[in-house]
Write a structure and sequence with these properties.
globular, alpha/beta, about 375 residues, 12 strands, seven-stranded parallel β-sheet
């Protein structure tokens, strides 16, 4: 069989409100949808949503790589052979991680059509049809954050994530305690975006003692192992590592030292069958949990991230993949939205039929 045919088109999705991160503000996501199609008409759709601030290539670099891409081989017959196929195509998950994820995703959808199996089941037999997700609490003021938390809990969420480090500790902890008193079963996840010094982190964790805090993600601006170990020892707080924020050597050393409780993986950066499996295995050997996180990709990319989350072994955890709610528009007719704190796992084989008509035309699929 001949190599698949590639088509692609750009997208730009505005967010309902800006999202603050440690490496800048996100107001819109620009990316590329790709389609692979073989001689039998089997089609797979992928999503490349790069952002060089978080460890991927730039959008211009991605488009340049796409323009020069030539497939030399047909798709492999098995999922575990995809990394070799990508390598043969000249696509490196280290140099072009977003493009690698998009091509890998589209190829996975095509393989699943041949296997007559949904992706999450192909990745792990018996994988669940839905996963728990956390809600993300934004808001510029404590009253706004309180109201958002109340709305999320009324909507069926149990795990709430909030950004911290940008306001006073006492004010932050006050609204958290107020919500917790009204909803004792809530679980909190804090994301400091690497904003704190060690004394600031110690002050927050001490003041927040007694709150049901599952973990704090990236608490320190200078994340030395000794400082992180001291923070955990002095306060008992569990610490999460966002894998996209550091290089491989830094990450491997911290996992080996068992500094972290939870490893957060963005498949858009680390793939599904390429770099992620080794990370997941290292985390498991160190007794760490793994949480899958979106990269504010479209509902196409999010569908593959959700499948990867469902395929994770181990205990049930809430994943950070309920992000389609933050877009004012999407590339699919029906965005992938959580319901009552759960996200159904879509069948990626059906993604061509879910796209809005304008994208179908641009991908030459209509």
């Amino acid at each position: 069989m001949r190599p698949p045919r590639l088509t692609w088109t750009n997208y730009a999705l505005p967010l309902r409100e800006p999202v603050q991160t440690a490496r800048g503000t996100i107001v819109r996501r620009d990316g590329v949808l790709i389609a692979l199609r073989d001689d039998d008409g089997i089609t797979g759709i992928g999503d490349a949503a790069p952002d060089s601030r978080f460890g991927s290539e730039t959008l211009d670099e991605l488009r340049s790589a796409l323009a020069g891409l030539q497939f030399s081989a047909a798709l492999p017959p098995a999922v575990n052979k995809l990394p070799e196929w990508l390598q043969a195509c000249g696509v490196s998950p280290y140099v072009h991680p977003a493009l690698s994820f998009a091509l890998e995703s589209a190829a996975l959808a095509m393989l699943c059509q041949r296997l007559h199996t949904p992706l999450h089941v192909a990745l792990r037999a018996g994988a669940p049809a839905e996963v728990m997700v956390n809600a993300l609490i934004g808001g510029a003021s404590s009253p706004q954050r309180f109201e958002q938390a109340e709305a999320a809990l009324r909507g069926g969420f149990h795990v709430l994530k909030f950004k911290c480090g940008g306001r006073g500790t006492a004010d932050e902890v006050a609204w958290l305690r107020r919500v917790t008193e009204r909803h004792p079963t809530v679980e909190w996840r804090a994301d400091a975006n690497g904003r704190w010094s060690l004394p600031e982190a110690l002050a927050f964790c001490t003041t927040a003692r007694g709150l049901p805090l599952e973990y704090i993600e990236d608490p320190l601006a200078h994340a030395h192992p000794e400082s992180l170990a001291l923070l955990r020892r002095e306060t008992g707080v569990r610490i999460a590592l966002d894998e996209s924020s550091r290089d491989d050597v830094w990450r491997a050393a911290r996992i080996a030292n068992r500094v972290f409780h939870t490893l957060i993986i963005k498949p858009t950066i680390f793939g599904i069958t390429t770099r992620a499996p080794a990370l997941i295995a290292k985390a498991a050997s160190a007794g760490m949990r793994v949480v899958m996180s979106s990269f504010y990709e479209s509902s196409v990319g999010l569908s593959y991230v959700a499948a990867a989350a469902a395929a994770l072994p181990g205990p049930t955890v809430a994943h950070g993949i309920g992000t389609a709610t933050h877009f004012s528009e999407d590339v699919t007719e029906d965005p992938l939205l959580p319901e009552s704190g759960m996200l159904r796992i879509p069948d990626v084989r059906e993604l061509p039929g879910m796209l809005r008509s304008a994208y179908l035309r641009k991908l030459q699929l209509s």
